Amino acid sequence: MSGERVKRVVFEGPLQARLEEANLPEELAPSGVVVRSELSLISPGTELALFSGTHIGFKDPEITWARYPLNPGYATVGIVEKAGPAAAGASPLPKAGDRILHYKPHADLVALDTSKDFWLPLPAAVKTTDALFLRFGQIASTAVEASRAQGDVLVLGAGIVGNLCAQLFRERARRKVVIADLSPQRLSLAARCGLPKGIDTSGAALAEALKAATEGRGVNTVVEATGVPALVPEALRVVNRGGEVILLGSTRGTVELDVYKLVHRKATSLVGAHESRYPERAPAGSPSHESFARDVLSRILSGGLIVSPFLTDTVAPADIEAAYRMLLDDASHHVGVVVDWRKR
After folding, report:
1. Nearest residue to 280 via CA among 89, 79, 120, 87
2. Which terminus of the chain has a smaller tally of CB atoms within 10 A, N or C?
3. pLDDT band at 4 (very low <50, low <70, confident <90, very high)
4. Are 339 and 315 in contact (CB under 8 A)?
5. What values do phi and psi take at 20, rounded to 5?
6. 340 pairs with which residues across the strands?
């Protein structure tokens, strides 16, 4: 299998996506595996920003990976076809025939090193399409773990990450949650996931609607889950005095902020919650990407987290550019877009 040709997604420039052919490595690492992809999930956040050329990393010389051409990817479920000697001989590591989740780029065949790359074994009980959303649940868990407040929570943004963040604050932290979004479709999706009626920010003043939704208490935590720069000062305005604003969405640009009024005098905590806040793996009992993903998996299996309504589209690899454009042009109706690598 070494040197086998594979098909993978490449961004050649803004709004340009296609399949390219490449070779697998000639030799696997001792802990390496080759995975035949079943389904991969497109991120409507980071990946779409890279596709459109709007990711802030393109203008930052320190973020060198945000350069064209690049091979995007976010979450893939596949079957292990071959394992190196270390992986084949150690029971905690995947072996041929195992179904796993990994975060390598979109491709029909992927080589990964289990000692370095993130992967998670999947039980037979979890649907492949549901397993893909573990990545977003893992990211959303960062905000829940980073929170130090009590009381009501407002999540700005009802996309996949914001939706799962709201569900996790309710299920894991047992806190009352209000979700807000401009899109009635995304708010309807939140209701299908069992969340209380959200705030449609296209037709209501947020502060007034928030008081009504919390019976006048307001919120001690606001999670900004969209990455829209203008929503950062808005989050600081509506949070209660002494509260916290958690930045979960990667902000797509700079923010103009009255720090004296909104942070200093208001005694507000401004918390960064990028997924890199926590390590990929850590000793048992410590927060990590792995512990978050396992927690999300158990909650999906128990019915505590609802993810199946996120899946809106399944596309063939040959239609990859159209899939990104679909997300870019109509994000309210196209939410979870999956690439089926079994389609030719």
Report:
1. 120
2. C
3. confident
4. yes
5. -125, 160
6. 39
- The CATH class for the domain spanning 5-133+307-340 reads alpha beta
Domain(s) labelled CATH 3.90.180.10 in the chain stretch across 5-133+307-340
Condensed to tens digits (0 to 9), the pLDDT of residues 321-335 reads 999 999 999 999 999
Strand order through the sheet with 177-181: 199-200, 177-181, 153-156, 219-224, 239-247, 269-272
* pLDDT tens digit sequence for 163-204: 999 999 999 999 999 999 999 999 999 999 999 999 999 876
Condensed to tens digits (0 to 9), the pLDDT of residues 42-52 reads 999 999 999 99
Residue 338, phi then psi, degrees to nearest 5: -115, 135
Higher pLDDT, 92 or 241: 241
Indicate where the chain has its CATH 3.40.50.720 domain(s): 139-277
Which class is domain 139-277?
Answer: alpha beta
Helix then strand then coil, in percent of the chain rounded to 5, is 30, 25, 40
Do 186 and 192 contact (CB within 8 A), yes or no?
Answer: no
Nearest-CA neighbor of 337 among 318, 320, 306, 312? Answer: 312
What is the torsional sign of CA 273, 304, 195, 335? positive
Q: Residue 266 CB: number of other CB atoms within 10 A?
A: 15
